[in-house]
Design a protein that fits this description.
179 residues; mainly alpha; 5 helices; 81% helix
Amino acid sequence: MPSTGFQNFAILVGAFIGLFTAGPLSDWVSARSTRRNNGIREPEMRLPAMIPYIIIMYIGNIVVAVGYEKHWPWEAIVMIGFTFAGIQVAALPAIVSTYAVDSYKPVAGSLFVSITVNKNVWGYGFSKFITPWTEEKGFVDPIMTNASLVLLWCLFGGLFWWKGKTFRRWTRDSKVHRM
């Protein structure tokens, strides 16, 4: 087993992969959709780029949860599970926050404050309860519950892809758009 600190390099490598691929993929998906929409770009057009990262997120969580539970070799857990965790932690927020800013540019600062607070509350909550929960139930239940909750929130990307323009239309007279 490698030193604990060195295991974090897998997350770092994954984060770099996520950062360097999410932007170009999201831009490509959006540009392709814009061409198909007669040159009219909509913020929702980048949301389908979330799909591969959602799949990566779920696979990574399965590898970590089952790997810990079944005592898989550390290489599988670290090199696949942790790397996939790094990829999704960088890619999904980048795509979603770009969508949010595209939808509501005047309040971009407030959006990022809200995103940061939400992310930190989630991370704190997970870190606060993961140890006692894993001691009581094992690794699969807490890790896959967290993964499933993240999946649930990510599935809202599909709702926003489908109805986002309608949602933005509902707020078109809001002062948010006139700031």
